[in-house]
């Protein structure tokens, strides 16, 4: 763990943000790595038959990428004790060289003892693509009490 | 018959034991664009959402159950929650069992809530993964 995290953390602490481009190549790579071969993630035909505007990213690709904001911050990914998110709308990924940008940001929303809850936002095309995304991390040491805590 | 509320509580036999390799962890981390050094080398741990790799064959047991009449391309992942008891490590041999928690039949779709329990060979809990999937009932045109 990065030694500075527990000392500096308080409710409202902003984590360094992250912007990632989702391309068709990344979707194929994730499909293989995750063994998720739902054709809506690579076939325009299947995506449209399923009522989608086009090929969409795996929700788990968005969710997994979003957690990088947290694990980059704490350094040690084994400190993540829970992680949850909703997928309110799909990330449509065009078949071009640029793909689509997804911006991830996060801030500390609660602290209890050594447990820190981080709320994560993921925005693509101006809209939220993750809902109520929260990761809980155990920093292993009690976070010093500050007057912001209730 | 199609999936209905009556399928709540339905359990599946569990996936074949899956051995997590350093190579698969590296492949998964690369797919996420994540260069965290803990995911590389001889004795890596896996990114937490590597759980999806283990869930996939368990979910597929559910999605391919002929009694439920589910088409994979009409499945949309609605939400996901993971509880981690410890990280996944290279060398772990894990099993996963999926249970249908709840089915809600809506106009044009079914909402399926399911939990995958992932454990080690000795029965030690590693991760619990709760998901909701929406199955769009509209017939393909």
How would you characterize this protein structure?
- The complex is a heterodimer of chains A (150) and B (141).
- By secondary structure, chain A is an alpha+beta fold.
- Chain A has helices spanning 4-8, 24-34, 44-49, 59-74, and strands spanning 14-22, 80-86, 100-112, 115-124, 127-128, 131-138.
- In chain A, strands 1, 2, 3, 4, 5 and 6 form a six-stranded antiparallel beta sheet that branches.
- Chain A is elongated, with a radius of gyration of 17 Å.
- The two termini of chain A are 26 Å apart.
- The model of chain A has no long low-confidence stretch (mean pLDDT 92).
- In chain B, 16% of the residues lie in helices and 35% in strands.
- Chain B has helices at 22-31, 51-63; strands at 18-19, 75-84, 93-106, 109-120, 125-136.
- The A-B interface holds A 20, 26, 29-30, 32-36, 38-40, 46, 49-51, 58-61, 63-65, 67-68, 71-72, 76-78, 80-87, 90, 131 and B 24, 27-28, 30-34, 36, 38-39, 45, 47-49, 52-53, 56-57, 72-84, 86-87, 136, 138, 140-141.
Which descriptors would you attach to this protein?
heterodimer; A: 150 residues; alpha+beta; six-stranded antiparallel sheet; 4 helices; B: alpha+beta; five-stranded antiparallel sheet; 35% strand
The main pleated sheet of chain A reads as: 6 strands, antiparallel
Radius of gyration of chain A over all CA atoms, rounded: 17 Å
Shape of chain A: elongated
N-to-C span of chain A: 26 Å
Structural class of chain B: alpha+beta
Number of separate strands of chain A? 6
Rounded to an integer in angstroms, the radius of gyration calculated over CA atoms of chain B is 16 Å
Could you estimate the helical fraction of the residues of chain B in percent?
10-25%
**What fraction strand of chain B?**
35-45%
- Main interface: chain pair and counts: A-B, 40 and 38 residues
Which CATH first-tier class of one domain in chain A would you pick?
Answer: Alpha Beta
Strand order in space, largest sheet of chain B? 1-3-4-5-2
Q: Classify the helix fraction of chain A into a percent range.
A: 25-40%
């Amino acid at each position: 763990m990065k030694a500075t995290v527990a000392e500096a953390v308080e409710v409202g602490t902003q984590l360094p943000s992250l912007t990632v481009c989702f391309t068709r190549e990344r979707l194929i790579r994730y499909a293989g790595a995750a063994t998720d071969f739902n054709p809506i993630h690579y076939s325009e035909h299947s995506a449209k038959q399923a009522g989608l505007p086009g090929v969409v990213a795996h929700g788990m690709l968005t969710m997994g990428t979003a957690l990088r904001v947290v694990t980059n911050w704490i350094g040690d990914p084994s400190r993540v004790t829970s992680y949850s998110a909703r997928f309110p709308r799909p990330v449509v990924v065009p078949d071009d060289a640029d793909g689509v940008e997804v911006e991830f940001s996060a801030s500390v929303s609660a602290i209890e003892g050594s447990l820190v809850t981080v709320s994560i936002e993921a925005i693509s095309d101006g809209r939220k693509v993750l809902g109520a995304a929260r990761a809980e991390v155990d920093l292993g040491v009690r976070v010093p009490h500050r007057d912001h805590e209730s | 018959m199609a999936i209905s509320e009556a399928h709540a509580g339905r359990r599946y036999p569990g996936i074949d034991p899956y051995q997590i390799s350093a190579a698969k962890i590296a492949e998964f981390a690369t797919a996420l664009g994540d260069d965290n050094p803990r995911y590389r080398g001889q004795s890596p741990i896996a990114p937490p959402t590597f759980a999806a790799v283990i869930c996939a064959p368990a979910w597929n047991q559910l999605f391919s159950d002929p009694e439920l009449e589910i088409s994979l391309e009409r499945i949309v992942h609605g939400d996901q929650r993971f509880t981690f008891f410890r990280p996944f490590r290279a060398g772990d041999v894990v099993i996963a069992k999926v249970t249908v928690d709840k089915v809600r039949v809506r106009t044009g779709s079914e909402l399926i809530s399911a939990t995958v329990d992932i454990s080690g060979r000795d029965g030690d809990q590693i991760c619990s993964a709760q998901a909701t999937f929406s199955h769009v009932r509209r017939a393909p045109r």
